[in-house]
Amino acid sequence: MDLVVGGGVVGLSIAWRLARSGRPVTLVDPAPASGASHAAAGMLAPVSEVSYTEEPLLRLGVASLARWPSFAAELAADAGLSADAGPDPRGGLGADGGLLAAARAGLDLRADGTLDVAFGADDLAALGELAAFMEKLGLPVERLTGRECRRLEPMLAPSVRGGLLARTDAWVDPRRVTAALLAALERRGVPVVRARVSELLREGDRVTGVRLEPATGPREIAAERVVLAAGAWSGGLADVPVRPVKGQIMRLRAAQPLLGRCVRGTVHGTPVYLVPRGDGELVVGATQEELGFDTRVTAGGLYELLRDARELVPGVTELEVADVVAGLRPGTPDNLPIVGPSGTPGLTLATGHHRGGVLLAPLTAAIVQGEEADLATFCSPARFRDIS
Ligand code: GLY
User: Is CATH 3.50.50.60 correct for 1-111+169-242+332-388?
Assistant: First the structure.
């Protein structure tokens, strides 16, 4: 039996894919779907999320984005999402009949691209360099003038001088995804143990299961393989170089959608993004703070988000505040996830996804199942073995 520790989007996806492939699997988490995945904006945006210094991360992201349509369609089927959304008039992720339509409706999966905008000459030059790098890699990006940006997104500030449109970037509502994953696990009969793991059980040099914090239910669970997918908390259970990177985010509510696609930019040197949901919500994110395990939502964090978002889209200050939340991204020394056999028999790692857990979940689940050997080398735990 495989035991997945961690019920965020990564752990849930792994457990679901293992169950689909016929493996017996159990998942343990004290409060599934409540950590970083609950705070995440859900951008499936490998092109606009990555800087040109991070080609391996870009390759992982592009490969995982390619998996998202079938992942979402199969999830829609397994979770019993309704297919009554009808045919989807949009292009982007490709057509797959009713299931992809159900995924689009049920998971708020959209593929209308990301618009990365620039204000000053420096921003514009940086975007130009990024565009040249993307073009060299054969990725589809379009350079736009300020006027062309505003034609696409009329609510953009007049001061926007130019932009970069990544048409293939997509996004999804992570809260709907984790809810669907939990439903799919339940429908497949996968046990979800709501308890905290206090330590990994070991026999000799082998991991053989987990010990749970005292509570009702089992105190220990034995497993042939433990998959550690506990995000920022992974370092408390195994020797893995993951640290919490706090992100504060807010959800604003609009009567009319303010934007048709994801918009991002750098304001006063700080990146900010706005992600529109199908129901009119607009997600504004996110801070990046190195404060340990601190999930307080602060006045300063929210002020900075709103101040910067207003520079991009002045109309945001008119919107109602629906939700504010902070989550902890699992950061790694090289910004790449840590996925694969740990070097300790019986222990596989699936953590360190930093800003890309939602995007990278389908690929991570595939790697844990032994697929994608070439891409797996980028995120192999072996790269840290000499320092851990
Ligand atoms: N993926 C965006 C963030 O972590 O803020």
Answer: yes
